[in-house]
Specification:
By secondary structure, this protein is an alpha+beta fold. A hairpin with a 2-residue loop joins strand 3 (115-117) and strand 4 (120-122). The longest helix is centred in the first third of the chain and has 18 residues, at 20-37. It has helices at 20-37, 54-67, 81-84, 87-97, 101-112, 126-129; strands at 2-6, 12-16, 115-117, 120-122. The strands form two sheets. It has a two-stranded antiparallel sheet with strand order 1-2. A two-stranded antiparallel sheet has the order 3-4. Residues 127-133 have low confidence and may be disordered.
C-alpha cells in the first residue's frame, strides 16, 4: 500500500506500507544482505547500518569539526536514487556475491513489485527501471 505524506518544502512524498508478510520477508532478506555486504563498509560509514544511527554520525562529525582543521563539509542527498537505479545492473552486481537463486529471485520480485493506491494495483513504471545509475 502507498500513502503520501507532506514534505516540509511543499509537495508530497510517497510512503510504501508493506504487509506484515512482506515486512517479515524484507527483514529476513536484510539480514542476509547485511551478512554479505557489511564487511565492505568503512568504520566511518553510518547510513542504515546495524547498531549505528544518524545521531552517532552527527556526534563524530561534531568532534571532528570542533577539534581538527576542516576546509569543507559536503552534504549529499541521494534522493530518488532507488527510483532510478538500473535493475538489470543491480541484479548483475548482486549475482557477483550471491549464488543462491532463490534469494536473487526474491530480490527480483521485490524490484518488480507494483503498488496499491486507494485500493487499486499499479505496475512500476518500466521506463524508470531502464535508467542508468
Amino acid at each position: 500500500m502507498r500513502i503520501y505524506i507532506p514534505k516540509s518544502r511543499g509537495g508530497k512524498r510517497p510512503l510504501g506500507i508493506p504487509t506484515v508478510e512482506d515486512k517479515l520477508v524484507q527483514m529476513a532478506l536484510k539480514k542476509i544482505l547485511e551478512a554479505i555486504y557489511e564487511v565492505d563498509f568503512l568504520d566511518v560509514s553510518y547510513g542504515f547500518r546495524p547498531k549505528r544511527s544518524c545521531h552517532q554520525a552527527l556526534d563524530i562529525l561534531d568532534k571532528a569539526v570542533m577539534t581538527k582543521p576542516v576546509n569543507y563539509i559536503v552534504d549529499m542527498n541521494i534522493e530518488k536514487f532507488f527510483d532510478n537505479v538500473n535493475h538489470k545492473w543491480l541484479m548483475k552486481f548482486l549475482r557477483m556475491r550471491i549464488a543462491d537463486s532463490g534469494t536473487l529471485r526474491l530480490i527480483g520480485r521485490f524490484l518488480k513489485a507494483g503498488v496499491m493506491e486507494e485500493g487499486k494495483y499499479y505496475q512500476i513504471d518500466r521506463a524508470r527501471r531502464k535508467v542508468g545509475c
